[in-house]
Each structure stands twice: as structure tokens, then as C-alpha cells.
Amino acid sequence: MRSASRLFVLALPALLLLAACGGGDSEELIQSPRTQNSPAPTSATTERTPSPMNKQYSSPEQVIDPEATYTATIDTNYGQIVVELLTNEAPIAVNSFVFLARDGYFDGVKFHRIVKGFVIQTGDPTGTGAGGPGYRFSDEPVTRNYEPGMLAMANSGPNTNGSQFFITLADLSARLPKNYTIFGKVTDGMDVVEKIADVPVTLSPQGEPSVPTVDVHINTVTIDEKAS
Fold first, then answer.
1. Which of 98, 103, 101, 86 is nearest to 151 (CA)?
2. So what's the architecture of 3-7+14-34+67-226 in CATH?
3. In this prediction, what percent of the chain has a pLDDT beyond 70?
4. Angstrom distance (rounded) from CA 213 to CA 199
5. Are 113 and 139 spatial neighbours (Cβ–Cβ below 8 Å)?
6. Where are the beta strands (DSSP E) in the chain?
7. Looking at CB atoms within 10 Å, which of 60, 74, 143, 208 has the fewest?
8. pLDDT digits over 19-72, tens only?
């Protein structure tokens, strides 16, 4: 059992960074540094005990057709979010997401972190921010900006992508470096994203107001494939 830093501070002015890892270690936002509207992060170490609900894989199967187009419908208990998956820009991340979705990995998974005006984050079946699918995969070049409604992989450093992802709530182009692979964009249901962002939250163990006090979860993720 390994331990990993869940939250750490980077000395970069006026930045808010997101992160999560995927190979069975901790997955957590990296938030830095303090601003008027963001809590000061603290450092913590956690050990993860795999949950029976947290399926583990050695690697994702290759399931996507590079010539096809893919849409994901993320059905939540607050409504549906429809996402265009950016296969041409992030084929590794899209393939992993489709593989996990088709295997039911995201079914019942909570939105474990909600930061209004910043992001909503999910993809950890343990609901702790410390879960992952058992594998990691490489970063891919980010050519888009972090505009509202972008889906991006959370990570804990270079090439540590797993299952956790976030949806941006605002234009974060000036606040996030292009270190978080963008693999999709919301095409319908941004109102649902905003509803989720509005749920009441309480403090995390690190003192950040980001833990939902009500149940917010994914019911299913359905993948639609269309040949080109």
C-alpha cells in the first residue's frame, strides 16, 4: 500500500491547479495559491484501501475507432450532461474514458469535489478523491483553452492520468497551465453542470469548502459511436 500527497501548494501566483492521479494512488486537486475567493490548501498524506466497488485494471483495452466520432451522455441524479469526446485531440484519454464507461466503472460514482466558479470533479468510485482504475496513462498536448464546459483529466503530475476528471465552470485559461489533458466538451446540459456546482458543500479535511453535503452522483455513462 502506497501513500501519496493529496494536496500540495505550488508557489505560482494567481493560479488554481487541478490534479488527480490514476494508478491506484491518491487523486486530488492541486489548488494553489490563496486568492480572495479560494481557501488556503494544506498538505496531507493518505493511504488508500481499494474499495470493492473500485475495479482495478492493468491497462485499458483499445476500444475506440480513430475514424469514428464519440458522444458521451453522463446521466446524473441532477440531469443529463452530453459531451462531445475529442478523439482526434486526445485519443488516449478518450479511449480510457470509453473503456471505463462501457464497463460500468462510473456507474454510481459521486461528484466528490465541487468548487463553485472553478470545477466539479468525479471519476473516483471510492468517493474519497484517492481512487483510480489501477493504471496510469500519458498526457496529451492541450491545444484548447480551459473554457466553461471542458472535460479534462485530473492528475498529480506528468503522465499520471487515471479515471478522475473535471468539468470547468468558468474560463480558467489564465488560471490553469495546459497540463491537464482536455478530452471532451459539454454540448448540452451545462445547466445541469451549474446545478451540481450550486449544491451546498462543507469543508474537506484540508479545510476547503468543496465536499457536497447532499448526494450528487453519476447514474450511468452511455457512449454513442458513429462511423465517419
1. 86
2. Beta Barrel (2.40)
3. 77
4. 8
5. no
6. 3-7, 44-47, 69-76, 79-85, 111-115, 119-122, 150-153, 165-168, 182-188, 201-203, 209-212, 218-226
7. 143
8. 443 343 333 443 322 223 332 222 222 333 334 468 999 999 999 999 999 999
CA–CA dist 114, 22 (Å, integer): 19
* Statement: residue 9 has pLDDT above 70: no
Mean pLDDT across the chain: 82
The amino acid at 175:
R
How far apart CA 117 and CA 106 sit, in angstroms, is 24
| Ramachandran angles phi, psi of 203, nearest 5° | -75, 140
Say if residue 2's pLDDT is above 50: no
The alpha helices in the chain, defined as continuous H runs, are 91-102, 190-197
Distance CA 168, CA 147 (A): 7
What whole-number distance in Å separates Cα of residue 113 and Cα of residue 121?
Answer: 5
Q: Where are the alpha helices (DSSP H) in 103-204?
A: 190-197
Query: Which of 39-53, 71-85, 95-109, 167-181 has the least mean pLDDT?
Result: 39-53
Nearest CA-CA partner of 185 in 93, 100, 67, 123: 93
CA distance 168 to 57: 28
* Burial group, residue 80, by CB count within 10 angstroms (0-12, 13-18, 19+): middle
Q: HSE on the CB side for 212, CA within 13 Å?
A: 21
Whole-prediction pTM: 0.81
pLDDT on residue 137: 98
